[in-house]
Amino acid sequence: MIRRYTKTAMALHWLIALLIVVNVGLAWAWPNVADESVRPLIDNHKSIGILVLGLAIMRLLWRLTHRPPALPTGYAKWEVTASHVTHWLLYLIMFAMPLTGWIMDSAWKDAATHPMYWFHLFEWPRIGGFQSLEPATRDYLHDLFGALHGWFAYALYALFALHVGGALKHQFLDREPELQRMLP
Ligand code: HEM
């Protein structure tokens, strides 16, 4: 018998996964784009990132109030532990990426003259306090959180590879209905 996640968990899983892939794609695309076309890509990246933050909050609340379906029996103990560690690190990254991005953007020297609009719908606030800092401190924090944003992105790539690699291993080598757990 296949034990599946709930429809809410599936929807959040695939929506967040898609948005993260698009956001990484945008970040990879903009170094290769003409200067005048970069701004819309970055603006959409910021809006998508904030959307991921909102969905990640809902997802964490779901996770804290639901027990995921039991794993098929027969997985090695180290695999079960590795999957739990990877899942919780992925939750951490779902928050770390948007938050470091938002902090970096809040400390940006041009933030005051470039308000952020969430998908052109309404102005999204910068985190208070950064703009009233000494310019040198503000710039330092901008660069620090920019670097963290980049390092967390590398962690994201590694976790993504482990997560997908583990799922495919169980699906095709162990011949367990693994992907079906997250599919309607
Ligand atoms: C799902 C959430 C997010 C993901 C997966 C993500 C991913 C990335 C990646 C992969 C890069 C390139 C890093 C590098 O190679 O150095 C990047 C850069 C950037 N991100 Fe994000 N990001 C997210 C959310 C955000 C948010 C919420 C903001 C701002 C509100 C933001 C603002 C930026 C900016 C301004 C850069 C360019 C930094 C620079 O090179 O100057 N990101 N992001």
Question: From the 3D coordinates, which CATH architecture would you assign?
Answer: Up-down Bundle
| Residues in β-strands, percent | under 5%
Most strands sheet: 2 strands, antiparallel
Cα separation of the termini:
14 Å
Brief overview:
The protein has a single domain, classed as Fumarate Reductase Cytochrome B subunit (Up-down Bundle).
Describe the structure.
The protein has 184 residues and is mainly α. It has a single domain (7-182), classed as Fumarate Reductase Cytochrome B subunit, CATH 1.20.950. It is built from four helices and two strands; from the N terminus they run H-H-H-E-E-H. It has helices spanning 7-29, 35-65, 77-106, 135-173; strands at 116-118, 122-124. The chain has a two-stranded antiparallel ribbon with strand order 1-2. It is elongated and about 60 Å long. It starts with 6 loop residues before the first helix and ends in an 11-residue tail after the last helix. The mean pLDDT is 96. Bound molecules: protoporphyrin IX containing FE. Protoporphyrin IX containing FE is lined by residues 20, 23-24, 27, 42, 45-46, 49-50, 52, 97-98, 101-102, 104-105, 146, 149-150, 153.
Secondary structure: elements and pairs:
Elements lengths: L6 H23 L5 H31 L11 H30 L9 E3 L3 E3 L10 H39 L11
Helix pairs in contact: 1-2, 2-3, 3-4
The structure holds protoporphyrin IX containing FE.
Family: Belongs to the cytochrome b561 family.
Membrane topology: Multi-pass membrane protein
Cofactor: heme b
